[in-house]
Amino acid sequence: MNSLKVFAPAKINLGLSVLGVVPADQPYAGYHQLHTLMLPLDVGDDIQVTLAPVLSLRVEGTDLPTDSRNLVYRAARAYLDAGQISGGAEIVLTKRLPLASGLGGGSSDAASALLALERLYGAGLDLPALAVQLGADVPFFLHPGPALVQGIGERRTPVALPPVHTVLFNPGTAVSAADAYRWLGDSAQFTSPLDLPGILAALEGQHPLPYLNALETGVLPRHPEIAAALAELAAAGLHSPLMSGSGSTCFAVAHSREHAEEVAGTLRRRYPDRWIQAGSWWGAP
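User: That's the sequence. What structure does it adopt?
Assistant: Structure tokens below.
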């Protein structure tokens, strides 16, 4: 096998608490300490990786850098260097997710590149160690399944969930994670750990979810269009609207896949210039 195509799923955060900042005398000093329930979805990007003499990247679907400014390129370079591999890879990234949208697209793309390269080269590398150096969300996507994610993103505990169906609404605004976390620091709005048992019970009973996204405190006042997207999802008959990650994509929970697809279609007709999708748990049993 010298070529492999990999699906890179989006994720949503079914609650995101920011507990504080890692102290200066500990590893990852200055990073934010997270407590979040993450769920991979059946919407995302595609990556084609083909063995080649040198490393190259092409991006289709949007205008992104194809050098070391791109996280996929950096992930591939890190893998090749760590494995002391003399060859390279030709990578084609097909972007379908909006950029800087809180769906983990770049992190998922990077993790998918690592997974593809490991299957093609088989160097037996410590992928989690490589992933955490690339970004807090990257380790999650090495084993995408519902998980409680803690620390700076390196601690992952699988969680059993019922099927989850959502509608995703991106209002067309890009929000950088760096800004979202900086705004949180400005207001010192750190939060307590999520009520994980309460969230799981609510999902099982299809009740409103007792969760929060700590980053909304800083993001929503600066981006009223995101608050408007949350209101649209609630008005459409969905429940528990929340911003995912650092934004700007919002989601809300539907009663079924059919319900999610129906609402997404209605919203797309109302907002034809917005990215709106039905998204369900990718890999659900």
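DSSP finds eight helices and ten strands in the chain.
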